[in-house]
Amino acid sequence: MVTAYDYSSAVHVDSAGIDLILVGDSAAMVAHGHDNTLPISLDLMLQHCRAVVRGAPRPLIVGDLPFGSYEASPAQAVEPAVRLVKEGGVDAVKMEGGAPSRVSAAKAIVEAGIAVMGHVGLTPQAISVLGGFRAQGKTVDGALKVVEAALALQEAGCFAVVLECVPSPVAAAATQALQIPTIGIGAGSLCSGQVLVYHDLLGMFQSPNHSKVTPKFCKQFGNAGAVITKALTEYREHVEARSFPDAACTPSRCPARTLMTSPMCCRRWASMGGLRLPRLPRRPPPTMQRNYWTESRRR
């Protein structure tokens, strides 16, 4: 599983043959520049979901329920879940936490006919309670809580559970205890599957001037950030040196230049489906042009 937040990233993930896409509330951080996932709204999540669905017709797409959309009561949790599926077009929803109230909310959503993915361990929506982005389940008591929460979510009807930032033995114990798949992120290699944030695994944030830091548990499978920065820098340098555009883009080869130089070619290209343009006014006959200039000189 990989996160995606827009059409282009969804196309890339789909083309790579990834099984699941998570439209995560981590969009608040990597797409909108916030320090945590809390500020993103349900309406904004819906926009991200719709864009991803248009770009990835094959994978199973899971939409994150944002903070504040399901905490009050189980009945309240159903409405945003329905909106993510009905308006966002996702196949399932994900929600964080394994407390009794969250388990009840998950059960209510499942009973409403919506597939739910759970999320235990480090739950970013509860960082104020957890004391920040810290690993969970490091003590015996903490490990038991992680496994018990995962079991409770399974009992509520969840089809899978994300295990985030827990020790590998704890993730292995939870995976063995559960009858549903576990998706690990910073939880070792013994989970049923893995999930990473799109920007993290591609190395998108490599600038020393950027505040975003790739988590230690994330392996970077590419250095896309450096490639993008290099391309943009070269573009700026070529424009400043007036070496772009070059001879490769000439009126005979480039439809855009043809539009500005030849109205006839413009209409022909438009008739072939290249562009829809308004009807151009006809030029006046030569005799009218001569009369116009003659009258102008007399004045």
Automatic annotation (TrEMBL):
Pathway: Cofactor biosynthesis; (R)-pantothenate biosynthesis; (R)-pantoate from 3-methyl-2-oxobutanoate: step 1/2
Record GO biological process: pantothenate biosynthetic process; photosynthesis
Residues spanning the signal sequence: none
Kinase recorded as keyword: no
One GO CC annotation: mitochondrion
EC number of this enzyme: 2.1.2.11
Region (Disordered): 277-299
InterPro entries (alphabetical): Pantoate_hydroxy_MeTrfase, Pyrv/PenolPyrv_kinase-like_dom, Pyrv_kinase-like_dom_sf
One Pfam family in the UniProt entry: Pantoate_transf
Catalysed reaction, written as an equation: (6R)-5,10-methylene-5,6,7,8-tetrahydrofolate + 3-methyl-2-oxobutanoate + H2O = 2-dehydropantoate + (6S)-5,6,7,8-tetrahydrofolate
Family statement drawn from the similarity comment of this UniProt entry: Belongs to the PanB family.
Purpose: Catalyzes the reversible reaction in which hydroxymethyl group from 5,10-methylenetetrahydrofolate is transferred onto alpha-ketoisovalerate to form ketopantoate.
Protein name: 3-methyl-2-oxobutanoate hydroxymethyltransferase
